[in-house]
Amino acid sequence: MQRRDFLKNSALAATGAAVGAATVGNASAANASLLTNPGSPIITPAGTLARPMVKKSLMWGMVKEDLSVMDKFKLLKDLGYDGVELDSPDKLDMKEVLAARDKTGLLIPGTVNSMHWKLPLSDPDPKKREECAKSIEKALWDTKEYGGNTVLVVPGVVTANVTYGEAYERSQAEIRKLLPIAEKTGVKIAIENVWNQFLLSPLEAAKFVDDFNHPMVGWYLDIGNVLRYSWPASWIEALNKRILKLHLKEFSFKKQNDLGLWKGFDVEFMEGDNNWPEVNKALEKIGYSGWASAEVPGGDRKRLLTIREKMDEVFKA
Length: 317
Description:
Blueprint: H1 3-23, H2 28-31, E1 53-58, H3 69-78, E2 86-88, H4 94-104, E3 110-113, H5 126-146, E4 150-153, H6 164-185, E5 188-192, H7 202-210, E6 217-222, H8 232-239, E7 243-248, H9 253-259, H10 276-286, E8 290-294, H11 301-316
Parallel strand pairs: 1-8, 2-3, 3-4, 4-5, 5-6, 6-7, 7-8
Helix pairs in contact: 3-4, 5-6, 7-8, 8-10
C-alpha cells in the first residue's frame, strides 16, 4: 500500500469512527483505536478534541526501586502512569512481564531497540549492521507480544568515519529489509531524533520517512532533543501525521551555556526553555492525541511521583 493512500484511508476511517461515536453520544469506540493509531484524534463525549498528550508513560530503566517485575508494574500503576516502555532485546522474562501487565493493567505501548547505539545501522561493517537489524527484528516480535505498536530506532550515527550520505544510504537499506517483519507483526518502526549528527532538520526528517513510502515507518519525536537544532513546533508542523509517539524531556539554554552542553538537560519539566503551551497547540493542530513518555533521570517512588506530577503540568499546559 502506498503511504499516501494509507494516510488518506486512515483519515477517512478515523473521521467516520468519530462521527459515529458522536452521533450515539459515546466516544469510546472512536478512542479504542488510540493504541493502534496513536496519531488519530480522540473524541470526547462532548464531541471536542481531547488534549494532545493523553497517555503517560516512562522508560523501564527509570525505575530504581529494588523490586520484582510485578511490583514495579504495580508501583507505576499506583503512581498514575498508564504505561511503561521496555528495551528490546533485554533480559526480562516475557511471561513475567505479560503477567505483570495483565495483573496491573499497566500497558506497554512500545519498546526501544537496545542495540542501535552499540551497533548502528550506519556502521561500515555489514556484519554489525546485520546484527543490529536482527535485534530490531526481535524487538518487533517482542513488541507484538507485549501488545505495543512501535519500536523506537535510532537510524544511524554520523562520525569521522561515517559520512552523512553513508549513514543515510545504509540505514535506509537496512530498515527496508525489516519492513516485511513490521507488516507481519503490525508494529511500526519509529525513527527518533537524537544527538547523532544525523537528520538535523525537520524537513529532512520528514523526507527520511517519506523515502520509504510505507505506512509502517514513522517518527518518534523527542521534544527535548530537538531544542538544540530548532523549536519543537517546527518539527511538529513538518512531521505532522508521521509522528507516532512523543518522548518528553526539558532543556535549558542557560545551563547549556553556563555549565556545558549536556547540562542543558539537567532541569525539571516546566523550568527549561520548552514552550509547552506552544507544543500542545502545535500537536493539537495536526490532530495528535496519544502517548507521551518521560525520558529523564529516574529514581525511587518519590522521584517517580514527582515526574508524573510534572508530566501532568506538561499535559495541561
